[in-house]
Amino acid sequence: MSSVDTAGRPPVLMDTSAGHPQNADQIAYWNGPSGQRWADRQQTQDILLRPIADILIDRARPRAGERIIDVGCGSGATAIAFAQKVGPSGYVLGIDVSGPMLARAQASAPKELPVDFMVADATVHRFDPASFDLLASRFGVMFFADPALSFANMRKALRPSGRLAFACWREPRENPFFMAPLQAAYKHVPKLPQVGPDDPGPFAFASEERVRGILTKAGFTAINLEACPLLLDAGIGGGLDAAVQGSLDVGPVSRALEDQPAEARAAAAQSIREALEPFAKGDSVLLPASIWIVTARAS
Ligand SMILES: C[S@@+](CC[C@H](N)C(=O)[O-])C[C@H]1O[C@@H](n2cnc3c(N)ncnc32)[C@H](O)[C@@H]1O
C-alpha cells in the first residue's frame, strides 16, 4: 500500500503487509482518482454526513477511557469525534486502505487528541488481540470481498465485553439521495454494470438477513439492525449547484460518468439539476435517505 505524507502530527502508521488479494480492486479504487476526490471533498462530505455521525455516536455510546477502532475511517471525521468522546485516557485507531483519505484525516485531527491513523486492510491486519472496547464505522464496512472473514478478524481485536456499531445504507429504493441523481444521469450514459447482492459496494449491507448471516458467522451476538430514515442536505449551504456537483464528484453518478464524453456529462448534469430541483428549499436540497445502524456484541 502507498505511503502517506502528513503535516503537524506523527506520521500515519503503516501496516506494510499486503492487503487481502480479493480486496485488491477496492484498495486500488480508494487509492486512485476516486479516493483522491473523496479526500478533496472531505469538508463538504463531513457536513453532509454529520447527521449519520451523530446517530452512530449516540447508539455506540463511547465512554471516557474506552479504546475504539474506526474501520474504514476515511478522512477521519468519526475517528476524531470518537476521540473527543473517549478523552485523554481513551484511544482511537482509525484504519483505512486509502492513503489520500488518511492524509486528510491526519491533517484534520487536533494534535492533542488520542487518535492514530493506520493504512491497513481490516480483513487481514493483525490487531492487538482483545484490546479494544468498540469497533465502529460510518459506511466503511461494505467494501470487503469476504465480509465474514473481515469481521471475524476485527472481532479478535475486541475484549470479550466489546461491542460493534456501524452505519450502512439500506436498499437503493429507500435512498433517493443516491437514486434520484443516478436515474437522471442514466438518461444520457450507460447504466453501471449490475452488481450481485454479495458484491462489495455501498448497498452490500442493505439486506438485514445478509448482515445477520455475516455477523453470526464472524462470531458476534445480540445483533440488532435499526432502520433510520433521514433527510440529507445535499446542498450543504450551496443550493442546487452544490448538490449537482456533489453527485458528479463522488458516488455512483461519478462512476457512471467516468470516461463519458463531455456532451453526455453536461446533459447528465442538467438532468440531475432538474431531478433535484423539487427537493430544493433555499440553499438546502433535502433528499430522503435511509440507513441501518447495526449493533452487536463480541461475545
Ligand atoms: C464510503 S467511505 C467512508 C469513509 C468514512 N468512514 C466516512 O464516513 O466518511 C468507505 C471507506 O472504507 C475504506 N475501506 C474499503 N475497504 C477497506 C478495507 N478492506 N479495510 C479498511 N478500510 C477499507 C475506504 O478506503 C473508504 O475510506
Number of strands: 9
Looking at the structure, the CATH topology of the domain at 13-171 and 195-230 and 290-297 is Rossmann fold
User: CATH homologous superfamily name of the domain at 13-171 and 195-230 and 290-297?
Assistant: Vaccinia Virus protein VP39
- What's the average pLDDT? 94
Helix content: 25-40%
- The low-pLDDT segments are 1-6
Q: What top-tier CATH class of the domain at 13-171 and 195-230 and 290-297 fits best?
A: Alpha Beta
Strand content: 15-25%
What structural class is derived from the secondary structure elements? alpha/beta
Assign the CATH architecture of the domain at 13-171 and 195-230 and 290-297: 3-Layer(aba) Sandwich
Largest β-sheet summary:
9 strands, mixed
N-C termini distance: 32 Å
